[in-house]
Specification:
This protein is of the alpha+beta class. It is about 65% helix and about 10% strand. The protein is built from 27 helices and nine strands. Strands 1-4-3-5-2 form a five-stranded mixed beta sheet, sandwiched between helices. The chain has a two-stranded antiparallel ribbon with strand order 6-7. β6 and β7 form a beta hairpin. The C terminus is likely disordered.
Amino acid sequence: MYMYYLLGYKYFGDLEYMEKFYHTNNVYDVKHDKKKHFVGFGNFLKNIDNSLRQKLENTFILTLDGDVEFRPNSVKLMIDKMRESKKIGSVCGRVHPIGSGPIVWYQIFEYAVGHWLQKVSEHIFGTVMCSPGCFSLLRGSTLLEDNILNVYTTKSSQASHCVQYDQGEDRWLSTLIIQQGYYVAYCSAATSYTYSPETFNEYYNQRRRWIPSTMANLIDFLQDYKHILKVNQRVTYLFVLYILVNFIASILGPATITLMIADTLNASLELNLWLAYFLAIFPTLIFIVACFSLKNDSQIKVAAFLSTIFVYLMIVIMVGAIARTLNSPILSPSSIILFALFFTFTLAAIIHPKEFKCIVPGPLYFLTLPSAFVLLNIYAVINLNNVSWGTREIKTTNSSANKTSIWTLVKKLIMKYTVNHTTDLNNENSVLKPNEEEIEKSEPNEIKNWTDHACLKNSEFDIMSDEERKFFDQLIGKHLYPNIVVNKEEIKQDLDSLRNKCSFYFLLVNSLWYLLLFSMQLLKDKLIDKIYISINVLETSLKYEPVYFSFVMLFVVMLVLQFVAMIWHRAITFMQVIRKTSLKRDKTKIQTEAHVTSSEFDNPTFTECGINGKYTPNLDTVDTVLNL
């Protein structure tokens, strides 16, 4: 709505006049050299005059969550990144989760690793796949392209729409931007802070939305890769292969982590092969049954209990792996994964000295690998038919009434055996009377119109013009009116069917992967001289099972590529900071910025950038240097 208002009304004034530019026969020819010519790949930007197009290209919309905190100079850096190319449709910055508790500590490390490795590798090799809605900058002309804003306002009428469109709006918008020929850039010097889930329940419900949406948009990207390769010069076959490998690794994540646990139990603790593989998969089987038979809240309780068991199991596994490594230089494939992750994350933290403290919760991340990559993925897929937000629902009055009645019943039982019946009734009446009086008093004071509020009594009101009112009437009638045609019951049935289909294939693929590698280990004596990979280390010939070892080596190669991309991106960020740094002092500008920031950013979050929680710059870009 606000995008249409900011871009449509401000520049065109009439919705019908604006949308007529979409409907022409001027079709874009993708056969010309896409590297030399770029004015937008749709009809819209070609049919408006050059001056208006330039205004739209230099119009940017900042998207934020309500609880996000950021510095003004971070937005300046994002705009500076936008100016590098008109093909940049969106720029996202570094997001820091804030809050308290172990769940937030885990997310601090998770966000750091995701930005240090995943985000920068996507930026260097092609395009960032998701520009988060909590802190991103969008180009106006990009949003008005033929297949972006018009498609983005599509109402969900199918089960797949509910998953892809409604569960991850920012990722879907990023997919549309990439499919239109633009790309999403990442600016690590632009930082923001957002409140993240602090409880296990909130975290699981949040990721229940994110994981299916991510998978749906990656499938959409991979299915449309031929068209994207034609119109988007940043996307190459190698980048498509990189995304495909990541997608397959995500699908096989639960079985791979379970195999890692089983392999370590067998190799480090010398457990029987059958027993090791059974102990590794048994908690997962319990959780699968729980997800299909219990309600959402009960599933999360089971996940929390099993996660605790996995934490203790991971402590034993990690101690066993370290002990085996100290006694012998020979590493199992699972040990290779653990040590590759450890050294990569440690080096990444060293390269980001200002964010080095983010590595402190690293041990918590390793201990919760089964919960985050096994239980959570299973929970998200099996609950695919649950399209509720999960973290923002308000409890209904009936549930509150039930809680109150239960509390009243307990109180009555206590009072019955402590005081006489008369006192009990008097206390009950005294408890109920104030509530009744408050209800009676609140009814006459109910505000029927927000303009009648006491705090707005002396405020001035501006009435919308007839043109603006007409624009909003058109907008509401065409894009914002509730979709009452769609049968909710039919969509619910389609969602259940989609859930069953996706769950079946997801569990089938993981079970086959687990069974394949278990069979290879079971028949090791018969296959070791025929298909096992032989590697000579320290004059010792090592035999590795080929399938799992190949998967581990591919994982290590991906880590190396991400590490190289991180080094490359750090160099780009350093050059951007140097380019924007001024060595001259502008006293007037310093005083102005100090006044604005001291009043708007008086928050303990920014204590590292100033005194007493207030940001006080000394140079034009001192905060940029701090962000680097």
